[in-house]
Amino acid sequence: MINAKKFGGEPLDALGIALYRSCQPMVKRFMRWRGAACHRLTPSGPTHPRRPRVRRICFTLQVKPDRLEEYRRRHAQVWPEMLAALRDTGWHDYSLFLREDGLLVGYLLTDDFEAALAAMDATEVNARWQAQMAEFFDSGRPDQHMRVLTEVFNLDDQLSDDQLGDLR
């Protein structure tokens, strides 16, 4: 039986029950990751007493404009062993965004970006992947030419209880 207190005391209709049940595995995986990883991550900005902090990393690269479709195709099915290596070396919530002129923006969460890069560099699967990806970039291996951006604003950092004051 689903506990209605979790949903503001309102009973769930059939659709609500189906959505709740379909989301449970994803929520459980997130909570396991959060429990295993987030609590030990270091802050990147002001700390908040109720939530763990991670370091947010954003970087850019430039994909050759004539190779965009192939680059998208290769990233639609990344090798399972590469996905596992990224996860195991501290890359979390990793996403890539590609603009039509080839600007590639990467975003991830990690507790130590330099350590995550070094750990990936030590894997055999990364050497194979980077050798294949180098053809899409004028600069060669993309993992050696990321231009990391400086974070200048984060909503959650500025919405801490101390800064909200009387606006709550």
Polypeptide structure, described:
Residues 35-51 have low confidence and may be disordered. This protein is an alpha+beta fold and 168 residues long. Strands 2-3-1-4 form a four-stranded antiparallel sheet, with no helix packed on it. 7% of the residues are buried. It has two domains: 4-36, no CATH class; 55-148, 2-Layer Sandwich (Alpha-Beta Plaits), CATH 3.30.70.100. Helix content is 40%, strand content 15%.
Summarize the structure.
With 168 residues, this protein is α+β, with helices and mostly antiparallel strands. It has 7 helices and 4 strands.
Topology:
Elements: H1 14-36, E1 55-62, H2 68-76, H3 80-88, E2 92-98, E3 103-110, H4 113-121, H5 124-133, E4 147-148, H6 155-158, H7 161-164
Antiparallel strand pairs: 1-3, 1-4, 2-3
Give the key terms.
single chain; 168 residues; alpha+beta; Alpha-Beta Plaits; 4-stranded antiparallel β-sheet; 40% helix
CATH topology of the largest domain: Alpha-Beta Plaits
Determine the strand fraction and express it as a percent band: 5-15%
Helix tally equals 7
User: What radius of gyration results from the CA coordinates?
Assistant: 20 Å
User: In CATH's first tier, which class of the largest domain applies?
Assistant: Alpha Beta
**What best-fitting shape do the alpha-carbon axes yield?**
globular
Order of helices and strands: HEHHEEHHEHH
Mean pLDDT: 80
Q: What does the main sheet amount to?
A: 4 strands, antiparallel
Content-based structural category:
alpha+beta
Low-confidence stretches: 35-51
CATH architecture of the largest domain: 2-Layer Sandwich
- The largest sheet has its strands arranged as 2-3-1-4
Count of structural domains:
2
Strand tally, please? 4
Helicity, in percent?
Answer: 40-55%
N- to C-terminal distance:
35 Å
